[in-house]
Specification:
By secondary structure, the chain is mainly α. The chain has one domain. Helix content is 64%, strand content 0%. The protein is built from 9 helices and no strands. Helix 1 packs parallel to helix 4 (81-104), helix 3 packs across helix 6 and helix 6 (140-155) packs antiparallel against helix 7. The longest helix has 25 residues, at 182-206.
Length: 222
């Protein structure tokens, strides 16, 4: 578990605020990337052509963003220091790797035509107008949601079934709402799992002072 890299580390409120500000700043880099990217390829597979388009699935897609905010704020206030550092380390590393993939291997989705005049269709059209089709692989929706689920399953083990159930719903919503291909979902999930294990180790190596001292092996006297 990643928090073992930060055993003994204690964070005051100022440090938590600074760390959280870094997480927010890194995460928001998605916005200019989404606006500036052009071209690229798709990772569509044959299964994508049989997946139906259901506008109503845009609701859980958007609710996932609300959950990110709630989970992040809750973790900020209540998660123990070592686990919180591991959590944000995995989050930031996943974002950095994901954004590099967006730049080095740009991808986009081909969205379906939105017919109908219902509220769900209107909401989908609004999202399509304001969220461009780029930065598809890997799915940021999945790497953030899975990262939260992995850490919250450790922090709140009684919630594990509900957390993974909600993650499956989010994964389905990204495809059924026309926002992602299936391989985007797979890529985002794998990225989150890799960074769950790798993020804390990387952070423990690169962060100076307070954190580095907490992961040095104890000296041995002969």
């Amino acid at each position: 578990m990643g928090e073992r890299f930060f055993v003994g580390v204690r964070l005051d409120l100022r440090q938590r605020v600074l760390i959280t500000a870094v997480v927010l700043a890194v995460s928001l880099c998605y916005l200019p990337l989404n606006r500036l990217m052009t071209g690229g390829s798709t990772v569509e597979i044959w299964l994508d052509r049989v997946v139906p388009f259901w506008p109503i699935w845009i609701v859980p897609y958007l609710l996932a963003i609300v959950w990110w905010i709630v989970a992040g704020v809750w973790a900020f206030w209540s998660m123990r220091d070592a686990l919180y550092l591991a959590f944000v380390s995995s989050w930031v590393l996943a974002c950095l790797i994901g954004f590099c993939i967006f730049v080095l291997y740009p991808t986009h989705v081909i969205r379906p035509d939105v017919n109908g005049e219902g509220w769900a269709e209107a909401l989908v059209r609004y999202i399509y107008e304001h969220d461009r089709t780029y930065n598809a692989f890997p799915s940021m929706h999945l790497w953030i949601t899975v990262t939260i689920t992995l850490y919250w399953s450790h922090w709140k083990p009684k919630w594990r079934i509900w957390l993974w159930g909600a993650t499956i719903v989010v994964a389905a919503s990204t495809v059924l709402s026309g926002q992602h291909w299936i391989m985007d979902v797979v890529g985002g999930t794998l990225l989150a799992i890799v960074c769950y294990y790798l993020g804390p180790a990387v952070a423990a190596l690169v962060l100076p002072g307070m954190l580095r001292s907490s992961v040095r092996p104890p000296s041995v006297d002969f």
